[in-house]
Structure prediction request, 236 residues.
Amino acid sequence: MARSKEKTPRKPKEPGRLKQMWQVFQMTRRYDSNIVLFMVLGFLVPVALGLALGLIFNPGNGLTITLWVIAGVLGGILAMLIILGRRAEKAAYSQIEGQPGAVGAVLRSSLKRGWVGSEMPVAVNGKTQDAVYRAVGRGGVVLISEGPKTRTARMVDEERRKVTKVGGNVAITVISVGPDADAVPLHKLARRLTKLKTTLTKAEVVAVNNRLTSIATKMPIPKGVDPMKARPQRGK
Prediction:
């Protein structure tokens, strides 16, 4: 008897790159009504610039002008992708801004090279869900409060004392992410870290992070939310 071949279930096919980009565009457009305008401008400006440069430097030479225009088109496509990426990131984080664990989501997914951070906070208020997170990088140690300053100030001061005791003279920066007027918007948090003045070498970053991790207390709380899986807020 011939053996019956068992059919193994096929894995669902992942969407292609173009389909993924279209899905990102659709998601972004729901929360950012200006995305189409910015992308169109991002495409047209390089094309117009390429045409202008071709007419200035090579007037009357159709082939060279065409090459300039093609270069402008390629530059326009690149500009559109950059704009889409940044606006999509902003739209994604706008869905979770204000929720407990939002800062942890940024530290997990958007930290630049040279920075070390955890999606788990180093201090948390169980009643209000306010929290303090820590990141270590070339700019020193950064304490990031999540919640109103009036409620997180005490936790920040306590964590600052811990860092000073273990890290010595390492530079400490405090950033607030919350409802306060001078707070840093969630989508700008990662870029804010990269703008800090360099005070540590790569080896010092590892050493300081290891010392701080060794005294860390495990926090029995949920991890940061995922901005790409967050449910859209009603009324938007």
Remarks:
- The longest strand covers residues 131-137.
- Residues 232-236 have pLDDT under 50 and may be disordered.
- The beta strands are 116-117, 123-124, 131-137, 140-146, 172-177.
- The radius of gyration is 24 Å.
